[in-house]
């Protein structure tokens, strides 16, 4: 039932994403286009601008939502999130470095972003193995914030080295799905499909690991191998999402938080519910970014931060940290 409700909500948000924008085309004009008529200008805005933006938002939300759920389950930490633990920042730094050396956001492949995300994931795993750090959610987040701050500082240094790169990095790093062509999906869809296959493989062992590593081993699973596959899946998902929309924080925190509230602690049900909830969160934030400052637009990364920050504070201030 929650999955059906989330699917219906996502459908309504997709319609809203096609109908509403910061430009002069009204919702009624856009609706006429969806009904099969409408002016030439309205058809162009809906089909060439809003539709690609909506599709990219769907893929980005799916990737970040699943990545957040995997990280939280693997680390047994409800605060683990790609944007908070340095995974997105590592991906962003790799992309900024590529831009400095001549790449552009229009031609950038997702491989560079995935490589940076993989490095960020490796640091997360190392952090969880530090005595007492992995078992303390708040201390782990502080360590992740330190790593994120360091990577953002290095990214800022890159911006000082080249004006052309600075302009492109500055636009990209705020996070946005506006103006992105559907051709960008060609480089990311194979990686996302590979990550989805990995998720299918690790879902059952990951649920067993929630009972403890000894129980998982007793059931015939190999925790070390499962962690490696999870890290690979997270790197593919976060790298693809970062290449598409820039580094967006808090999405991987909010989406699993909402999914667990309705699906319970079973990671398999949580992952299923993240499939519609992730895109719904991204597209809803994107619609808000268009309308809140019309005729201008707020960067999507700003809106996701405004949505996610209260959720983070609510989790941290809870009397009892949610158990995974």
Automatic annotation (TrEMBL):
It comes from the Bacteria. GO terms for molecular function: transmembrane transporter activity. InterPro entries: ABC_BtuC-like (IPR037294), ABC_transptr_permease_BtuC (IPR000522). Keywords: Cell membrane, Membrane, Transmembrane, Transmembrane helix, Transport. One of its GO terms (cellular component) is plasma membrane. It is found in: Cell membrane. It is a multi-pass membrane protein. GO terms for biological process: siderophore-iron import into cell. The chain crosses the membrane at residues 51-71, 83-102, 108-128, 140-161, 187-207, 228-258, 270-288, 300-319. SUPFAM superfamilies: ABC transporter involved in vitamin B12 uptake, BtuC. Belongs to the binding-protein-dependent transport system permease family. FecCD subfamily. PANTHER family: FE(3+) DICITRATE TRANSPORT SYSTEM PERMEASE PROTEIN FECC-RELATED (PTHR30472:SF1), FERRIC ENTEROBACTIN TRANSPORT SYSTEM PERMEASE PROTEIN (PTHR30472). This is ABC transporter permease.
């Amino acid at each position: 039932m929650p999955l059906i409700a989330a699917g219906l909500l996502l459908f309504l948000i997709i319609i809203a994403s096609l109908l509403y924008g910061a430009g002069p085309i009204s919702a009624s004009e856009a609706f006429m286009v969806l009904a099969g008529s409408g002016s030439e200008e309205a058809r162009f805005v809906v089909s060439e601008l809003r539709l690609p933006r909506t599709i990219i938002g769907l893929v980005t939300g799916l990737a970040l939502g699943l990545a957040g759920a995997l990280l939280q389950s693997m680390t047994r930490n409800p605060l683990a999130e790609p944007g908070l633990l340095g995974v997105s920042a590592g991906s962003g730094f790799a992309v900024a470095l590529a831009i400095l050396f001549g790449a552009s956001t229009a031609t950038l492949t997702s491989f560079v972003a995935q490589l940076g995300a993989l490095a960020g994931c490796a640091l997360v795993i190392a952090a969880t193995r530090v005595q007492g750090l992995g078992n303390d959610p708040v201390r782990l987040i502080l360590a992740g914030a330190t790593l994120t701050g360091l990577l953002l500082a290095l990214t800022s240094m890159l911006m000082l080295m080249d004006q052309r790169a600075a302009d492109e990095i500055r636009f990209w790093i705020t996070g946005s799905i506006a103006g992105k062509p559907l051709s960008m999906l060609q480089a990311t869809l194979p990686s996302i499909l590979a990550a989805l296959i990995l998720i299918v493989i690790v879902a059952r062992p990951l649920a067993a690991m929630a009972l403890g590593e000894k129980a998982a081993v007793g059931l015939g699973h190999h925790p070390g191998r499962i962690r490696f596959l999870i890290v690979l899946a997270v790197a593919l998902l976060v790298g693809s999402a970062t290449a598409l929309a820039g580094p967006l924080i808090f999405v991987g925190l909010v989406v699993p938080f909402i999914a667990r509230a309705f699906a319970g602690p079973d990671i398999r049900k949580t992952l299923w519910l993240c499939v519609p909830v992730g895109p719904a969160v991204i597209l809803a934030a994107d619609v808000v970014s268009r309308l809140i400052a019309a005729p201008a637009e707020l960067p999507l990364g700003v809106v996701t931060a405004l949505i996610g920050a209260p959720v983070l504070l609510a989790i941290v201030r809870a009397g009892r940290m949610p158990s995974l």
